[in-house]
Task: inverse folding
């Protein structure tokens, strides 16, 4: 399941045959149900390459996609192959925290830059931080922390928590517990991976019995649709309002709309990006993405687009000289590119210091379901693990 | 409440496992691709629901379609493998899983399909103050029980059922008596496919129809038929109920129970792990004490 998106042809036509291309490996999930996320990211990467004309400055770029099969060991193998066989200069992508954690050494120990387009495990922001690891997403705890603040503002006194049992699920739970001031009345961590648990009847019944005022969940990808349907089928919307992160998004909304599932309209979620964010790069990205692929991009897509743009900015700044690692590192750290979320800076652990917004699910002018920003929860927020990272 | 949830999971498991036990028990054929038939049933039903805008009609149409798919699989792939080693069958049906999954990927794309339910199935019923159940879960329980009843009647009171039971006990004898064993095998295989497909169709509105959906349930279904005794319908039913209840109750109450003698953090970490293992522990115990399962078919 590896296919090469060649921007080389375009670059060759432009007459820069003499320059060796800088290779970017992009690891994401292209099989299993989670492939729907991987596809969105692949589209965004291809769009970024198109916007760049396949080049950073005068250096041609080449992207090689690889599938992680939603399994840490497969993701690590894919990373190994990209690093050793394809000799890439950057490895980007990674939806899942457990896969990124399994793959990190394969890239970093071989002097290859690692850019996370989504996963933000607490370990890699803290004690495992590395000068060659950068993120164009967030640290896992941040988005649920923002949601915890939203709960505080609403005066919610108690919650019940459900999340999948893997690295990011645990970070998400820790995140909301860190900022939420009320009581956590119960918690369920459910089975995750290619054979994830998708029937939540037992957990939802427990949540109802717990008497909590609200339900907090994190169910990304295919599980999102399953979860929100069961939540509404169980009639919980009236008794136990739902607050979620990374669950109701550009991936699940078109599907929920196709099934005419109106229960999700009006849901509120937190995120560091939104299709309505008002900046030139984002407008261009969202408009072209919609024109080309027919749907709104998800946050996964926006962050993947940013990953490629970040890499391109560093390659351009150093004139494509991949031998000078220190210069590349410095250029990446500067984050001198037009991010779809607007300008941001990097903290000592190379995780973005950025805003977090409260978004609401609405119908757009054409009747498509999407999200819009209703509030800014955090301004220039740094993740809580930065202090554990020895980097300056 | 949790008992009803467990019952519903058990009945779905039974639908998958009964087809598996039929095929394994009578045809002596290890069909890993049973899970793919479950997925095909769900996917076909999901697309029909979206195009016809009627879930019931889609289910009724999908049943014969899955039967045909099962029939074709038997004719084209399975038939050649009956005489072969189990390992060959595992290999071939594993290949079939890849073919069917990739085929579904090409037809329907990587994203799953969310299946809308008609309005009257979307509500909830309250049985007492705290007991609120989604109507649709009750429908699953009712359908599962009806299917179980139908199978019970089919296996115990019809000529086909007699042949199936005879085939499970002693195949050679059945064919020696002049029964068209090829036709019997095709029918059994198609029946198994329909049962798996029905389970897929029933679960689709809850989870949604997606590519890998079969992989979750097939392992559990194998556990069920091993615990129940291979080839035994009664065994499959009782084992499915047992496993469904154990799994659900484990998920529901284990962390609470663990908190009595552990720190709450240790309980939160170990309870999900143990409840995921619980059914395999049961299987190991059953194999240790009754290697042929709880209800092995007589005279094997």
Result:
């Amino acid at each position: 399941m590896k296919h090469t998106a060649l921007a080389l042809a375009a670059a060759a036509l432009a007459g820069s045959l003499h320059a060796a291309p800088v290779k970017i490996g992009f690891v994401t999930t292209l099989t299993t149900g989670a492939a729907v996320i991987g596809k969105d990211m692949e589209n965004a990467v291809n769009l970024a390459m198109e916007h760049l004309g396949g080049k950073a400055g005068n250096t041609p770029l080449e992207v090689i996609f690889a599938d992680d099969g939603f399994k840490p060991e497969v993701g690590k193998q894919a990373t190994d192959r990209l690093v050793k066989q394809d000799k890439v200069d950057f490895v980007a992508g990674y939806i899942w925290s457990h896969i990124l954690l399994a793959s990190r050494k394969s890239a970093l120990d071989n002097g290859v830059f690692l850019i996370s387009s989504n996963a933000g495990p607490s370990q890699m922001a803290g004690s495992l931080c590395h000068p060659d690891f950068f993120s164009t997403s967030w640290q896992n705890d941040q988005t649920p922390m923002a949601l915890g603040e939203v709960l505080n503002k609403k005066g919610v006194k108690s919650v019940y928590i459900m999340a999948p049992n893997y690295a990011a699920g645990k970070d998400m739970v820790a995140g909301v517990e860190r900022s939420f001031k009320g009581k956590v009345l119960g918690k369920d961590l459910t089975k995750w991976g290619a054979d994830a648990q998708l029937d939540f009847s037992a957990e939802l019944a427990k949540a109802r019995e717990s008497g909590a005022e609200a339900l907090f969940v994190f169910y990304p990808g295919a599980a999102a649709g399953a979860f929100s349907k069961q939540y509404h089928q169980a009639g919980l919307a009236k008794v136990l309002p739902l607050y979620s992160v990374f669950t109701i998004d550009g991936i699940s909304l078109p599907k929920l709309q196709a099934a005419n599932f109106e229960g999700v309209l009006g849901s509120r979620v937190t995120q560091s990006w939104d299709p309505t964010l008002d900046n030139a790069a984002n407008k261009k990205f969202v408009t072209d993405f919609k024109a080309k692929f027919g749907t709104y991009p998800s946050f996964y897509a926006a962050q993947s687009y940013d990953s490629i743009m970040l890499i391109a900015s560093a390659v351009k700044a150093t004139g494509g000289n991949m031998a000078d690692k220190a210069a590349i590192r410095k250029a990446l750290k500067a984050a001198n590119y037009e991010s779809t979320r607007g300008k941001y800076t990097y903290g000592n652990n190379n995780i973005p210091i950025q805003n977090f917004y409260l978004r609401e699910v609405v119908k757009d002018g054409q009747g498509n379901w999407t999200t819009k920003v209703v509030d800014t929860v955090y301004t220039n927020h740094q993740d809580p693990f930065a202090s554990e990272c020895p980097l300056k | 409440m949790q008992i009803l949830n467990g019952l519903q999971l058990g009945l779905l498991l039974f639908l998958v496992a009964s087809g598996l036990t039929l095929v394994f028990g009578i045809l002596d054929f290890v069909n890993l691709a049973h899970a793919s038939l479950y997925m095909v049933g769900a996917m076909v039903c999901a697309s029909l629901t979206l195009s016809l805008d009627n879930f019931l009609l889609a289910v009724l149409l999908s049943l014969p379609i899955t039967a045909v798919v099962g029939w074709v699989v038997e004719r084209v792939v399975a038939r050649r493998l009956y005489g072969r080693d189990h390992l060959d069958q595992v290999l071939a049906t594993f290949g079939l899983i890849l073919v069917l999954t990739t085929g579904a990927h090409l037809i329907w794309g990587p994203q799953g399909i969310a299946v809308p339910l008609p309005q009257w199935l979307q509500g909830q019923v309250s049985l007492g103050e705290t007991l609120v159940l989604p109507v649709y879960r009750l429908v699953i329980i009712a359908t599962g029980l009806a299917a179980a009843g139908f199978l019970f009647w089919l296996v115990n009171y019809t000529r086909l059922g007699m042949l199936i039971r005879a085939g499970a006990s002693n195949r050679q004898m059945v064919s020696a008596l002049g029964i068209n064993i090829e036709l019997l095998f095709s029918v059994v295989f198609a029946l198994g496919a329909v049962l798996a497909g029905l389970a897929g169709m029933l679960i689709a509105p809850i989870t949604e129809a997606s590519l890998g959906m079969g992989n979750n349930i097939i392992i559990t279904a194998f556990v069920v038929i091993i615990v129940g005794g291979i080839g035994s319908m009664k065994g499959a039913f009782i084992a499915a109920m047992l496993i469904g209840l154990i799994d659900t109750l484990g998920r529901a109450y284990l962390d609470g129970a663990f908190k009595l003698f552990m720190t709450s953090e240790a309980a939160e970490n170990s309870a999900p792990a143990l409840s995921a293992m619980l059914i395999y522990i049961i299987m190991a115990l059953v194999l240790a004490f009754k290697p042929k399962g709880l209800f092995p078919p007589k005279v094997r």
About this structure: Residues 181-207 of chain B form the longest helix (27 residues).
